Amino acid sequence: MDFLSADSLPWLLPAQQRLRDCAAVQRLPHSLLLLSTPGLGAEQLANWITALALCESGEAHPCGGCASCLLLRSDSHPDSHIVRIEEDALQIKVDQIRDLIEALTLKSYRGGYKVGVIEGAEALNANGANAFLKTLEEPTQNTMLIMIAKPSHRLPATIASRCLRMTLRPPAPEQAIAWLKANSPSAQDWSAALELCAGAPLLALERQIAGGADLETEMQKTMGQLAEGSVDISLLADSWARSDSLLRIAWLENWITRRVRSHLGAATSLQSAEPVGLPAALLKAKIRALFELLDAARDFRRFASTGMNQQLALEALLLGGRTALGNEA
Prior knowledge:
By secondary structure, this protein is an alpha/beta fold. It has two domains: 3-167, P-loop containing nucleotide triphosphate hydrolases (Rossmann fold, 3-Layer(aba) Sandwich); 211-326, no CATH class. The chain has helices spanning 13-24, 42-54, 67-73, 94-105, 126-137, 157-160, 173-183, 190-196, 201-209, 215-228, 233-242, 245-263, 285-303, 310-326, and strands spanning 31-35, 80-83, 114-118, 143-149, 164-167. Strands 2-3-4-1-5 form a five-stranded parallel sheet, with helices on both faces. Strand 2 (80-83), helix 4 (94-105) and strand 3 form a beta-alpha-beta unit.
């Protein structure tokens, strides 16, 4: 477990300080809900908080050198437990939660805290959530539960309301770009990458390293083909479904938003998670079609993890895109 990497992400410092203050007065929360979009380091922060709770140095920060820290760094600490979606699964299974609950009811092996982390907690199924609720209601002594979920999570209110919430927000663009320049293997123009990734530096770095710099050219070409009706929708949907479809959907949301604003004579701005509001009188046919396409893109992103048929959903989305762009001609 690389819990020290959180110290290299400056936008996490406020959250870290808040937990340090809790640790200093021996009042770490028994349940914590980290709300974060991908690419802000929520997993790294959860690892750091785990180390903070389990560190045996007596300091209000993980020392990295005590017996517990060394066990964590070798992924062999008996009081640290992580649950995440298993490969090829769509949900966190109830058996995973039951195993976690059983582990947390046992006495601490090292006489300190026991920590359980659930990554992607919005993927808990109903049975798993119900099984987990009793543990939240009656936590055992020196037990800490950390859940990581998206701000748009579908966790039951009975679970979310019993947790201390901490929301991670993207850093200022200047701070994000400075961090990316310091950590990038090559020089890049990071402004567009950050916009595409909703300001998340880790996601921007990952996608640039993975060849995301070519996405703009590819997607601009695709939009032109859609407008001309010269692309096979089924083949294009299959291509998107086999690659990073959510990355292309994010690009499409940005592109549609800029296009709507362009039609209204407004300046280009960063992507917003909120719909662009317009007076009813301005909802002309071509703008209305773009808004419908934007809604479809956001619905796809919202339900992508629910097990929907991505191929069919992408075909419907792209057919709508062809109609919307045709209306602009």
